[in-house]
Amino acid sequence: MSLILASINYWVTIILMIGGLYIVVAHGNMVKKLVGLGIFQTSVYLLFLSPGKILGGTAPIISEKFEVYSNPLPHVLILTAIVVGVATIALGMALVVRINEAYGTIEDDEVHEMEQE
Amino acid sequence: MSFMQEHLPALQVVLPLVAASLCALFRVGYLSWLITLSSSILSFLVAVFLLLRVLEQGIISYEIGGWSPPFGIEYRVDLINAFVLLIVSCVSAVIVPYTQKSISARFGSTEQSWFYCMYLLVLTGLLGVTITGDAFNIFVFLEISSLASYALIAMGRDRRGLTAAYQYLIMGTIGATFIVIGIGLLWAMTGTLNLYDLASRLPEIKSSRPVLAALAFLTVGVSLKLALFPLHLWLPNAYAYGPSVASAFLAGTATKVSIYLLLRFFFTIFGGATFFTETPLPEILKILALIAMFAASIVAIFQSNIKRMLAYSSVAQIGFIILGISYATETSLTGAMTHMFNHAIMKAGLFLLLGAIMFRLGSVKIEELSGIGRKMPLTMAGFVILGLSLIGAPGTAGFISKWYLGLGALEQGEWWILVLIVSASLLTMIYIGRVVEVAYFREPTDEVVQLKEAPLEMLWPAYLLIAAAIYFGFDTSFSADLARQAAVLLVNAVY
């Protein structure tokens, strides 16, 4: 139990990662797939942020009052990753809209059937 | 001039990036094409200058914004990525003159501009991935190029382009996320993102579990991007239903850049061939590569859409390249890198010629091409030459790279691999032969009789690539010798 609690953020990361990936694979609805993809990407943010946080550490602004600082680098990286993630989901949604216009459905298997014809 | 020289590495990426935003601002088709053309040619010249400088004075390190590495982002050009930069920018510079005719026939002025904007963003991303020395920067550039290429593929003629782009988006994003996970684990273990700083810190902890997990994540992520069997499922549809120009460009460059990443991670960062051969990777990659060479070639034989056939052929050719990587010797890596170069030329050329057929006939279904060799003789003659090169006939570029791949296998005493390489090449002969048989030995149909030869603007870029495919079959002093020098750097993890 203590093993789990000591690294709780990594366990959450793993659960989100596997859950998100499972949704992408298991669901036929194209929007739900994108939701899963979003969850999968979000889990990575946690993976980066966890090692950057130091217990008792403060924001990295140099001051005489503080000696322990958190690492600012992962926040910068994840800000970038969030932007990339947003762009990906937006483009994915735009494609789903176009697919809906072209096929009249956003279910994977129905689209696949129409393509076979 | 010296100011320009100093900033060449940054210019390599900034030029197409600025050009892309200009295209988005002006939104006049012809003007956008001119912008794309000039920035593509300039990028190519920059790549040539960079390569010459690297040959002359060794590694170039460029500090973005004046922040010194490993804290700032470093652009670092050595022989390995100078070679890849040259491949990418050269393929792009040859394709752009061809685009105008093919794109203006289908899109209005504004849409054309968006097309060129996306095209340039793909180019920016690919050049950025190749030139950067920062692991997180790799991810960002990779996503720039991937997002733009999803949009490019969605602009295809057919509505299936949309689903192909969607599928590519899902698989590509999973791949990119795997790469970030790998980079994150490496960063957590070493505290650095600079590739070369990583390389110096990793040897001490290289057998720790997070580092091995990082290697696994990176391998799977990059393999998704480069379409290694069985992670290739996005590729056939994306190449078959995207616009011809996009297929030619992506087939020639995107997968090659991913292969470069694989080489960089395996060899430069993790400590050369000695580390690579300690892991189970060589066996796994060898088996997957062999399956790709055969399974994808056999599937290619049964395709009726020729673009789809060539897409499967790409999966098979990537198998050849990965086979070379799996041996991790100087000769086999020379083969892999030469094949990267040659395959970029051949596949881009083949897709350009198919684009010309699509332009005239409106279809690339094999049964509708009967007798087309009589009506479009130059196009089909080019197709045959590039096809021969793809098979690996002596006197063409494809022969050189397969020769080195075979030598690499022989050096390890595995002569049966040589037999497999030759038989996979015979499968290539079957699917290229099918097209040749239909195009030359059947009576032209009514539609084909009315065809004219492809327009000159579309033919000469393709013929440049054809000339290159023949030239590099005889003179290997550029392609194979450079590849060998790069292979030496990789095997010994020199950085």
Structure description:
The complex is a heterodimer of chains A (117) and B (495). With 117 residues, chain A is an all-alpha fold. Chain A has helices spanning 2-6, 8-26, 30-52, 73-103, 108-116. In chain A, helix 2 (8-26) runs antiparallel to helix 3 and helix 3 runs antiparallel to helix 4. With 495 residues, chain B is an all-alpha fold. Chain B has a domain at 279-495. Chain B has helices spanning 2-6, 8-26, 29-57, 79-104, 109-131, 135-154, 160-190, 195-205, 209-226, 234-241, 244-269, 272-278, 281-301, 306-327, 330-361, 372-375, 377-391, 397-411, 415-441, 446-449, 456-474, 479-491; strands at residues 60-63, 74-77. In chain B, helix 7 packs across helix 10 (234-241). Chain B is globular, with a radius of gyration of 21 Å. The chains are: A mainly alpha (117), B mainly alpha (495).
Could you list some keywords that capture this structure?
heterodimer; A: mainly alpha; Helix Hairpins; elongated; B: 495 residues; mainly alpha; two-stranded antiparallel ribbon; 2% strand; globular
Average pLDDT score of chain A: 88
Please write the string of helix (H) and strand (E) elements of chain B: HHHEEHHHHHHHHHHHHHHHHHHH
Q: Give the CA-CA distance, first to last residue of chain A.
A: 55 Å
**Alpha-beta classification of chain A:** mainly alpha
